[in-house]
């Protein structure tokens, strides 16, 4: 299923290149919260959208996916961004608390997760899933370990201690990264994928920026983060098939060509499942899919109109180009844009 992916060739839906013909007419304030991985994209969407809709105010707090979902469930925000799709229990809880209708969710942002490291005089590094799993579980302790050296012939690796850096807060990026390890190296990584990092005792930091800053602050550090936000850090090439792949939006988007919807019949839930363990040649397998989460019914029609219009802009051709330019994400495919448009069509605006 081409549920998400690169190449937004065309869309004749109401989600036009300017985010919908009624965008200029919306007004009022809406609040969102969630994935810090989406911060650059959300900031760009907000800036562009409010140029079209000057009477509207959109706020987004990059508090992390778990916090964003919690705030949405409790009605503290009007929409959320999350790197982990809401499950049935969360959606049922939202209906009892903060969402007066059904929860809708659909992909809006697709990006590679970089495995970034800080190692003096090493500007290129190859890593396979089993080796990454052993590094983050603490089994591989120094950079000149034979398992790393075997994948990096000709590279002079120091005996520097390895310090893995993980998220301290609930994070969809953590869940996506651990899902990759569980699927691509099941014999090494026995932990159930979760927003909460499963291993205690390592170096932990809050938010994407916190992880990136911590990696950069210490020689020998290694961590995972949305590739768009690693700055000057170096990222490892990740093994897929028989080759080691450098991250790029195009290489990351390829894995989504085989993605399947969690619930094919739902008109509101467009969450997808990725096959990270069987990435083919040329596919970058460490990927996060971030979802927009909203409600079909809002008590205030003004809020409903503004939420719908803002998210229509995010999935539009212009919105996806803005995200690609600002954050290096892969634009949604035509099929993914249609799915998002169908979901947004469930929002009642009168």
UniProtKB/TrEMBL annotation:
<dbReference type="GO" id="GO:0042301">
    <property type="term" value="F:phosphate ion binding"/>
</dbReference>
<keyword id="KW-0592">Phosphate transport</keyword>
<dbReference type="InterPro" id="IPR005673">
    <property type="entry name" value="ABC_phos-bd_PstS"/>
</dbReference>
<dbReference type="GO" id="GO:0035435">
    <property type="term" value="P:phosphate ion transmembrane transport"/>
</dbReference>
<keyword id="KW-0813">Transport</keyword>
<dbReference type="InterPro" id="IPR050962">
    <property type="entry name" value="Phosphate-bind_PstS"/>
</dbReference>
<feature type="region of interest" description="Disordered">
    <location>
        <begin position="1"/>
        <end position="27"/>
    </location>
</feature>
<feature type="domain" description="PBP">
    <location>
        <begin position="23"/>
        <end position="317"/>
    </location>
</feature>
<comment type="similarity">
    <text>Belongs to the PstS family.</text>
</comment>
<feature type="compositionally biased region" description="Low complexity">
    <location>
        <begin position="10"/>
        <end position="27"/>
    </location>
</feature>
<dbReference type="InterPro" id="IPR024370">
    <property type="entry name" value="PBP_domain"/>
</dbReference>
<dbReference type="GO" id="GO:0043190">
    <property type="term" value="C:ATP-binding cassette (ABC) transporter complex"/>
</dbReference>
<protein>
    <recommendedName>
        <fullName>Phosphate-binding protein</fullName>
    </recommendedName>
</protein>
<dbReference type="Pfam" id="PF12849">
    <property type="entry name" value="PBP_like_2"/>
</dbReference>
């Amino acid at each position: 299923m081409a549920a998400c992916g690169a190449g937004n060739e065309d869309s004749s839906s109401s989600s036009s290149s300017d985010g919908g013909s009624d965008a200029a007419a919306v007004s009022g304030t809406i609040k969102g919260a969630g994935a810090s991985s989406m911060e650059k994209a959300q900031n760009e969407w907000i800036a562009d959208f409010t140029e079209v809709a000057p009477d509207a105010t959109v706020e987004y707090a990059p508090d992390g996916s778990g916090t964003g979902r919690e705030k949405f469930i409790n009605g503290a925000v009007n929409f959320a961004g999350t790197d982990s799709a809401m499950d049935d229990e969360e959606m049922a809880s939202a209906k009892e608390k903060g969402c007066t209708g059904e929860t809708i969710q659909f992909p809006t942002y697709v990006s590679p997760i970089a495995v970034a490291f800080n190692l003096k005089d090493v500007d290129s590094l190859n890593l396979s899933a089993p080796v990454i799993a052993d590094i983050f579980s603490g089994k591989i302790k120094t950079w000149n370990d034979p398992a790393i050296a075997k994948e990096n012939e000709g590279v002079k690796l120091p005996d520097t201690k390895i310090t893995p850096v993980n998220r301290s807060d609930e994070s969809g990026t953590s869940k996506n990264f651990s899902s990759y390890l569980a699927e691509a190296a099941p014999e090494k990584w026995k932990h159930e994928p979760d927003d909460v990092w499963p291993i205690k005792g390592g170096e932990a930091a809050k938010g994407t920026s916190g992880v990136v800053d911590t990696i950069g602050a210490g020689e020998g550090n290694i961590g995972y983060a949305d590739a768009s936000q690693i700055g000057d850090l170096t990222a490892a090439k990740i093994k897929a098939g028989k080759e080691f792949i450098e991250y790029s939006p195009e290489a990351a988007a390829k894995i989504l060509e085989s993605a399947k919807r969690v619930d094919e019949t739902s008109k509101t839930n467009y969450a997808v499942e990725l096959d990270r363990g069987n990435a083919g040649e040329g596919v970058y397998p460490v990927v996060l899919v971030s979802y927009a989460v909203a409600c079909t019914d809002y008590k205030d029609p003004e809020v409903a109109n503004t939420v719908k219009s803002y998210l229509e802009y995010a999935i539009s051709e212009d919105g996806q180009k803005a995200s690609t330019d600002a954050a290096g994400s892969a634009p949604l495919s035509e099929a993914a844009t249609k799915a998002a448009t169908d979901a947004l069509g469930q929002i009642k605006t009168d």
